[in-house]
């Protein structure tokens, strides 16, 4: 298996001397010879770190919603389908989701998925395949009364919390293969808090163990219920009292991921507008109006996710059909497995409902015209996305232009072997 994995083509890596030469050549062409067709540079490009991915193309962003009406299973199933499609289209059976995205963001169950798919294992490859991540969610799905994965980390020190320790060990955010963003709600400050690989690389005061990040983003409740999770940075200087990571706080982290990219010129020197991005936003099913009173928080969370989708669609404008894809399941779209109470049905039925949502033509936002039923099914959208991602990767590997992504390094000494 290791021999096969090593045959997977790696996107090119630049050293600082070559990068400086590339930048100088473009500036020389523009100012000395009147050529003005060069890529745009961020003002902070002069401070580019050492490890760089291949030139040309769009920054590829993956955003995964909180649990929704499928407890994260729709997103898990979508990513499994996408990974299979990427393997077939690229011709390499061992490529992973992380090989085709530059940034990953996830909230709640989506944050757990992102961590499973983008945390580096002993051989520098993702610790889980998309299929393994889906099976993890299915096997560890908690009772709704205890919250998503309530059995796993209802409280710190719960014996079942050892599952995350077994999977992630002492891995920290610095061990993420790509820039990773996972939000939670910090009760101590009364505001959202985003765990970020970029911040972790800057200082240990923002470097957290991945197992604690997963507990924090999927925690529900508060102090009185004893369900809040305390996450501490590896140096002990920063403490987060986390709850409701995937509820009304940041149920859809797409906007947060886009903002991170467009305002981070060090890692994304060529990303200046939404047309420089390729965004995949993966939902987990929406709630219907039949929800009981105690589920109003979840309804509010769905509303926030829809608002984010609407805002992102508006921001992308005419590029929304080529640079932005939204995968979502709508219970109102005629699914015979309508999920009226996801805590009362078994995981097998929920898996079937999520699988059927992939065949739906979901409701999507339309520029200045509210919403309409999409022209393509979720499965067709995923197939289209796979084609775009493979083309993007091949373009980078063949292009010798300026880098799209410059991965921050924890230590300059590790830059020569780092990939993006």
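Q: What amino acid sequence fits the structure above?
A:
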């Amino acid at each position: 298996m290791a021999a096969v994995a090593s045959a997977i083509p790696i996107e090119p890596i630049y050293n600082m001397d070559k990068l400086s030469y590339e930048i100088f050549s473009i500036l020389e062409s523009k100012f000395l010879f009147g050529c003005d067709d060069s890529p745009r540079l961020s003002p902070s490009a002069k401070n580019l770190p050492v490890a760089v991915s291949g030139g040309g193309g769009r920054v590829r962003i993956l955003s995964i919603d909180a649990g929704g009406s499928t407890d994260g299973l729709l997103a898990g199933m979508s990513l499994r389908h996408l990974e299979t499609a990427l393997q077939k289209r690229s011709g390499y059976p061992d490529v992973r989701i992380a090989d085709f995205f530059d940034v990953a963001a996830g909230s709640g169950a989506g944050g757990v998925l992102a961590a499973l798919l983008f945390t580096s294992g002993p051989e520098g490859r993702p610790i889980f395949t998309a299929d393994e991540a889906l099976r993890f969610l299915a096997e560890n799905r908690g009772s709704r009364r205890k919250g998503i994965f309530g059995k796993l980390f209802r409280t710190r020190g719960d014996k079942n919390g050892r599952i995350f320790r077994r999977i992630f060990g002492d891995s920290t955010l610095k061990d993420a293969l790509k820039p990773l963003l996972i939000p939670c709600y910090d009760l101590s400050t009364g505001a959202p808090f985003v765990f970020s690989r970029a911040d972790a690389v800057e200082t240990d005061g923002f470097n957290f163990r991945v197992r604690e990040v997963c507990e924090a983003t999927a925690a529900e409740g508060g102090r009185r219920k004893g369900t809040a999770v305390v996450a501490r940075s590896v140096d002990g200087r920063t403490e987060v009292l986390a709850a409701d990571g995937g509820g009304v706080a940041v149920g859809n982290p797409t906007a947060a991921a886009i903002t991170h990219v467009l305002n981070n010129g060090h890692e994304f020197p060529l990303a200046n507008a939404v047309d420089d991005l390729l965004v995949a936003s993966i939902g987990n099913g929406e709630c219907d109006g039949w929800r009981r009173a105690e589920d109003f928080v979840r309804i509010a969370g769905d509303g926030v996710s829809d608002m984010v989708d609407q805002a992102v669609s508006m921001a992308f404008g005419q590029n929304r059909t080529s640079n932005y894809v939204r995968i979502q399941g709508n219970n109102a779209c005629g699914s015979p497995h309508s999920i009226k109470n996801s805590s009362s049905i078994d995981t097998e039925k929920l898996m079937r409902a999520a699988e059927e949502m992939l065949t739906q033509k979901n409701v999507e936002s339309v520029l200045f015209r509210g919403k309409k039923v999409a022209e393509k099914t979720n499965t067709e959208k995923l197939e289209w996305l796979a084609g775009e991602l493979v083309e993007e990767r091949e373009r980078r590997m063949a292009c010798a232009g300026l880098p799209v992504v410059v991965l921050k390094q924890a230590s300059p000494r590790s830059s020569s072997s780092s990939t993006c």
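Q: And what stands out in the fold?
A: The mean pLDDT is 76.
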